[in-house]
Specification:
two-stranded antiparallel ribbon; elongated; mainly alpha; Monooxygenase; Helix Hairpins; 2 domains; about 60% helix
Length: about 210
C-alpha cells in the first residue's frame, strides 16, 4: 500500500473537494485521499499550501526538505507501476507541481519573487517592478567595473566575499520587509538580490578567465 502523505493535514481552513475515486471529502491540495488512498490530481493552490507551509519568507528549510522528500517518495513512479493510467498521470502531475513548489520556496530569491506575487503585486521576470532603480543600477555598474579591473585571485575573492556579505544583509532585509508588510521594500530588495546573485555568476566567470590566462 502507498503510504499516505498529505500537504494540508494541519490546515483546517482548506476547502473540501471530492475524491475522484471514492467521492469522499478531502482538503484541497492533499496529494492522497485519506479514505481510499488514491492519488489526487494537483489542486490549484499556491506553493506554500501545496507543501503545507505558512506563506512566509522565513521558511524552515529543514522542514521544507522533510515535507518535500516525504512527498517525493510517496509519488515515486515505481509505486504506481501497477496502477491505472489515470493514477499514473495524476502522480506525474503531482510530482511536477511538487518539484516546482520546492524549487521556488527553497531559493531565497525565487521565494521572495513568489511571495510578492501571491500578495498581489505584479512581478516582472527581471525582479518585481523596480529594475530601473537608479541606486541599484549605479551599484551594478561600479561593481562590474571593479570586477573587470580585477587581475588576481585575491581581487576576485575579495569581490566575492563582499557580494556574499551583501546577499546575507539583503536576505535579512527582505525578511524584515515582509514581516512589516512592506511589499514595495521587499520588491526593491528582491531586485537587488537578483543583481547580487547574478554578480556571483560573473565573479565565477572572471575567476575562470584569470585562471586560464
Amino acid at each position: 500500500m502507498i503510504e499516505q502523505t498529505t500537504t494540508n493535514a494541519q490546515d483546517n481552513t482548506a476547502p473540501l473537494v471530492p475524491c475522484w475515486s471514492c467521492h469522499g471529502p478531502l482538503p484541497a491540495g492533499d496529494a492522497f485521499c485519506s479514505t481510499c488512498n488514491a492519488v489526487q490530481p494537483p489542486a490549484s493552490v499556491d506553493h506554500f499550501k501545496r507543501l503545507g507551509m505558512e506563506p512566509t519568507y522565513d521558511v524552515d528549510v529543514s522542514g521544507l526538505d522533510k515535507v518535500y522528500f516525504d512527498l517525493q517518495r510517496s509519488l515515486h513512479p515505481d509505486r504506481f507501476a501497477t496502477k491505472t493510467s489515470k493514477e499514473k498521470a495524476f502522480s506525474q502531475s503531482q510530482a511536477t507541481a511538487l518539484n516546482d513548489a520546492y524549487e521556488t520556496l527553497k531559493d531565497p530569491l525565487k521565494r521572495s519573487d513568489y511571495l510578492v506575487h501571491i500578495k498581489g503585486v505584479s512581478v516582472m521576470a527581471e525582479g518585481c517592478n523596480l529594475v530601473n532603480d537608479p541606486s541599484i543600477l549605479m551599484e551594478a555598474m561600479e561593481v562590474r567595473e571593479k570586477l573587470a579591473a580585477a587581475e588576481t585571485e585575491a581581487d576576485i575573492a575579495a569581490i566575492a566575499r563582499e557580494a556574499k556579505s551583501e546577499i546575507e544583509d539583503v536576505v535579512t532585509g527582505i525578511s524584515l520587509a515582509f514581516k512589516g508588510d512592506d511589499i514595495e521594500g521587499a520588491c526593491q530588495l528582491t531586485t537587488r538580490l537578483k543583481y547580487l546573485t547574478k554578480l556571483l555568476g560573473e565573479v565565477r566567470q572572471r575567476r575562470a578567465q584569470i585562471s586560464s590566462s
